[in-house]
């Protein structure tokens, strides 16, 4: 039997201190029907990110000659996954904040055909080291998405997300600066099924966050407006949020 393919992709900008550790922690064999490959989207890094990724075992590296932004990098990651023949894609930040060991958990609802788009959810799981202002910012932007979608979500800014092939093919990211909110608004509005899986998160100990409050707010809010104004055609599924209970065995589906 020919195996299907999972591609784990990482947007990275100057992550030489972290990316090697993330790649090393990606589980390469966890499902008998799937192979696992690692793709790095290097967004014009000026440090040794590319060399560290290559030595660390990345199967594919795509480099932008100049920094374009995280939204552009994730858009490229989704397109490359399709070009490389992935049946499932999962993005994870290259800064060692999210747990690669939980990739199988985050992908389980997609592998089992219960969801098309998944988050590793920090706020349903465990968070270490997040500052109060970041926590509040996350609550506000998550609440805004919940209101716009009229559905409860827990972690609208997660940097660990899984995608079915169909979701990758149809995802649209309206701005280059970021993807977090507009991607969810876009996919859920199209009717893709979202599931959130609790994960544990540890704020980075090396390198620094790219987020600057003023730039973030003035970029993200207009992009959310633009996304909500753009028409989407709905998929065959009714959009539902599948809340994953901590015990995987007792699944509860909420329409
Ligand atoms: N493509 C791209 N990725 C970036 C940029 N800045 C940061 N990243 C990556 O995006 C991910 C999340 O960035 P980070 O700065 O940690 O954001 P935070 O976790 O929300 O504080 C990491 O993998 C970074 O390497 C950028 O300008 N372009
Ligand atoms: Mg980070």
Automatic annotation (TrEMBL):
Chain intervals for the UniProt region annotation (Disordered): 236-255
Coiled coil: none
Basic and acidic residues bias: start-end ranges: 238-255
Protein name as annotated: Glycosyltransferase family 2 protein
Domain (Glycosyltransferase 2-like) ranges: 8-169
CDD domains: DPM_DPG-synthase_like
Position of the signal peptide: none
Biological source species: Paenibacillus sedimenti
Pfam families: Glycos_transf_2
